[in-house]
Write a structure and sequence with these properties.
about 210 residues, Arc Repressor Mutant, subunit A, 2 domains
């Protein structure tokens, strides 16, 4: 009787990194189990995959956590109170754009693009980790704007929620631009224009104090 081969061993951290690149490049739905098995550790069996990760969805959750602890840290300036609020917003937008256009990584942002095809299923829990990641960024932007108002950098009447939503929408819009090959220099120019919206509200504040 032929002996069963030993399960293929692999480095788990490397395996999650390999899976991350696939989910990032193709999205959750288009990243098939066969594609994952072929990429991880140079190829693993279905039993080994399920023994290690439980399911494709569980692996995706682990991938998102890994992404947020590495590439997703481009938004860390939003939570750095040592930075002036405007500087923090501009730094986060710029770092995100540079990461999304990096020639050595899949173009765009996993958080923005990873589960777009899953929203047809209203009860699906698959997009939840990315919703949570976007909510964290949203809160970071809102915190910067509220801090700007408290410091007197922005007018007291500034609509913090609306301004945060505008910057978040701009940030999410970088992903298709990066995928379409828009040059980084063009995107950085757009960022410079976007943060002028902060300055418009700052000028309102200055006018108010001069009145």
């Amino acid at each position: 009787m032929a002996q069963l081969g030993r399960p293929r061993s692999f480095d788990r951290t490397q395996a999650v990194d390999e899976a991350m690149l696939l989910f990032w490049r193709y999205g959750y739905e288009a990243t098939s189990l066969s594609r994952l098995k072929a990429a991880i550790g140079g190829g693993i069996t279905a039993p080994s995959f399920y023994a290690a990760f439980g399911s494709k969805e569980e692996l995706f959750k682990e991938v998102v956590a890994r992404y947020m602890a590495t590439h997703g840290r481009v938004n860390d300036p939003l939570f750095d109170e040592a930075l002036a609020p405007r500087e923090a917003v501009e730094a986060a937008l710029t770092q995100s754009a540079r990461m999304q256009c990096d020639e050595h990584l899949p173009k765009g942002c996993l958080v923005a693009l990873g589960t777009l095809g899953c929203y047809a299923e209203e009860e699906s829990s698959i997009p939840l980790p990315l919703r949570q990641a976007r909510a964290r960024t949203r809160e970071g932007l809102l915190s910067c704007i509220r801090r700007g108002i408290a410091r007197g950098d922005l007018a007291e009447g500034t609509d913090a929620d609306a301004l945060a939503a505008l910057f978040e929408g701009f940030l999410l819009g970088l992903s298709p631009m990066a995928r379409d090959g828009v040059e980084l220099a063009v995107i950085e120019g757009a960022i410079a224009q976007a943060v002028k919206l902060w300055d418009i509200n700052a000028r309102k504040s200055e006018s108010h104090h001069q009145a």
